Structure formats: structure tokens, C-alpha cells
Amino acid sequence: MRIGATIGMVKAERIALVLAGGGARGAYEAGALSVLVPELDRRGQRPSLFVGTSVGAMNAAYLAAAHDRSADDVAAGMLQRWRDVGSGHIMRPLHQHLILAATRYLGEALSLPGFQFSSLLDPAPAERRLQEWIDLSALHRNITQRSVDTLAVVATAVRSGRTVVFVESAVQPALHRSHVLDYVPATIDHVHLQASAALPVLFPPVRIESPVEAHGWYVDGGTRLNTPIKPALDLGADRIVVIGTDSITPPSDEPGRHEGSPPDLADGALHVLEGALVDPLAEDIITLGNINLFYTDPAGTPAAQQYRQARGKPPYRKVPYIFIAPDRRGAIGEHALEIFRSSNRKLSLRSVRQRLFSQFLGGDSPAHGELLSYLFFDPQYLNELIAMGQHDAHHWLATTGNDPWQIGPLPQLTGPPP
């Protein structure tokens, strides 16, 4: 058996880890990675190229900063950080900040000097926590020593609406121009991570001063590119691991599926979220599988490759991938709502605050549960998400057997022929 030769060949490949945004759902990513990263390390396929949006950028930065440690230690450290998270570590209690937010909003509406309404929530606790989570000196050292190829953080520029990918790499990659993305070489700092997670309306925009050519105000990268598969490919990934924070399986087609009670604000907000976060991911995974099957097949490549060449882009190539996500839409929201209802049965100051938070999101219907699942940083809920991520990672490894890498489209996305 040529195990040594195989491992040596695989180590030369650039394995990319792509992490999506999703607020509290980052705990799901941590659970999946706690299983997957050690397993890939044993196979000689530990990721060294990290691309993330919002909370995914924070998880990616942690993994890049801790890359010089063993895979098992890194996985344990990530889980411990998420288990230590509580609502007080992420944002100021809602009942405290809403009064201040309402005052600012009224002052701005009355054109009073010095008043500006920028967000409903205050992320200052999360910003302090982030500085404890991510060791920037270790991050830069790992990149300088080339144990980490690249860290890329996605944010959205407020003025232009462009998706900006801040890229730190010891060897500057060829960052070709895109009509939808701006690639900016940078030394990643906490402010880039904060900007990537600044969800509009809920959290205030973040000012980035460095690098100078990209200075300006930024908000959450998930508003335009929540699961950054394209940047990973553009940065030269040979294989891609994608962790999604919701299922991309098609919705039910049973009769009456369009009927329901009159929609409210939460239902509308949920559709906007799914349109921005879930649906593009499904299309990206389908496209990646189709490219692997068709465009890299010699019989199908000439015209496609000529088209790429005419646009000054490299040829299509086969990129094996691993994709881990919940098995059905709404599963995480159901967990959030169930735990939320259970905790609210207890008479305590905490449950009163949670009821206020629930009313802020509009109640406790399934749509409200989906919205809640992004902002509910309850320890029990986070542990449930960790366990769910671990289960789904084990399931992928068990069903794929000796080779966890997928080439074509996922079976549940292809469906029967027309």
C-alpha cells in the first residue's frame, strides 16, 4: 500500500474550510468541526485555508490562530469557548439597550444634535469576548510561518454595497478582479471580524481604517455572501469543506403547502433571511457538483474552457468537497423555540428578560423560532447545537465510508429526472 505517498500528495493540496454566518448557529459549526477537523488531520488533510463570514469568520480566525496546536486540542478549545458563551457575553441585555436605542431614535427623528440611531442591540460584550477568543499574534505567526495558507474575512461595504474579502496570506495570492467581489490584502484585526458580524439594524456598522484603500463603514458580510465558497475557489482551494447553518434540501411539495395563517413581520424577515443565507448556498453546492461532473469532463470542456480563457480566468477544475448541514430546514429553529419555551416556564428574572426578547422578535411561532435561533445565546441551546453539529458530521463520515469527499451534486438535491 502506498499510504505514505498518498498522504504526502494530499498534504500538498490546499484544503479550504468555508464557514457561514448565523449568529448563535456558530455553535453548530463548532460541533461539526470538533468531529471533522481531527478526522481530516488523521487523513493528512487538515484545512489550512480559512474563509468565513460573520460568526463563521470568528470561528475561522480561531482555527487559524490555533493551527499550531494539535487538531484534538483545537477542537476541544473551540467547544469550550462556545460552552462558555452566555447572552451577557454577546450583547447588552435587551431591556437595558432598548431604552437607550429608543432615546437615540427619538432624538434623531427630532433632528437634535448629537443623537444618532444606529442599532437595536449593543454588541460591546461580544467585542470584548472576541479579543479573548482570538490570539492575533498567534494568527499572524501561523500565517508568516506558512502553517496557515490564508485567512479571508467577508464583510459588506455600506456605501457601495460591495462584498469585500479581506485576505491575509504570507504569499500574496493572485486576487483577480470580480464583478461581485473586491479582494483586499490586509492584516486581519479584531475590527475586521466585528465588521463581518455587524448585522444591519440589530448591530451598529463598524468603521475599518486599514488597509487605507478599503477604509469605510462595513456591515455583516452575510447580507451579500453568507457562505463564501467562491472566495475559497478564487484563493486556490483544491478541496473544500463547507459547514452550513441550515439545510439546503428542497421544501416540501405536499398539497396545501402554501396555506397558513396571515403573515406578520417575523414571517417577512424570515423570508429575507432565507433568501440571503440559505437559497444561494443551495445553488452554490449544486453548481460546484455540476462543474465537477461536466466542465472537468474532457468531453465537455473545450467551449467552457475557451470561455474562461477569453475572460482571463483559469480553467475549471475538479474540486472535491465535504458539505455538512442540518438534514432538514427548520430543525435548528425548532430546537431554539423548544428550549426557549421550557426556560420561560421558570419564574425568574432571566425568564422575564427572555419573554421581553421573545416579544421583540414577535412571539413563538415557527418563523419566530427561526429568527430566535440566530440570537438566542442560551447555554442549553448552544449545547444542543454543538451536539447536532457533531451528529451531522458523524453521519457524513459514516455514510461516505472510506472517502468523505463528494464530487457530483448531493443526492438529495438532484431529484428524479424530469
From TrEMBL:
Please report, in chain numbering, the residue ranges of the motif GXGXXG: 21-26
Record: active site: S54 (nucleophile), D220 (proton acceptor)
**DGA/G (motif): residue ranges:** 220-222
- The keyword Hydrolase belongs to this UniProt entry's keyword annotation: yes
Q: Keyword set for this entry?
A: Hydrolase, Lipid degradation, Lipid metabolism
One record GO biological process = lipid catabolic process
PNPLA domain boundaries: 17-233
Protein's UniProt name: NTE family protein
Phylogenetic placement of the source organism:
Bacteria, Bacillati, Actinomycetota, Actinomycetes, Pseudonocardiales
